[in-house]
């Protein structure tokens, strides 16, 4: 019997929460620095609940309960795109957080 941990979610589970109105929050754990043409840092992801009471941290597996972290901006942007985000706002300073809300419509860029 597997006990469900209430405050974590895997990548597959995150997709389900996004469909329920959760947002993806990108949190900068280690400030970003540029090396050559690549930005490095440490970012983690949280599923932000609409009511803010049931947020869930993204983990690599429910068995290990290790936060999934991203070490490059390109890896993080690829993850966000795979989750359905049409834009990416990445915090570069430690402790900063940026929300990403999925939308079902597109905006006219000429406005």
Automatic annotation (TrEMBL):
Domain of life: Bacteria
Name this protein carries in UniProt: Uncharacterized protein
The species this protein was found in: Fuscovulum blasticum DSM 2131
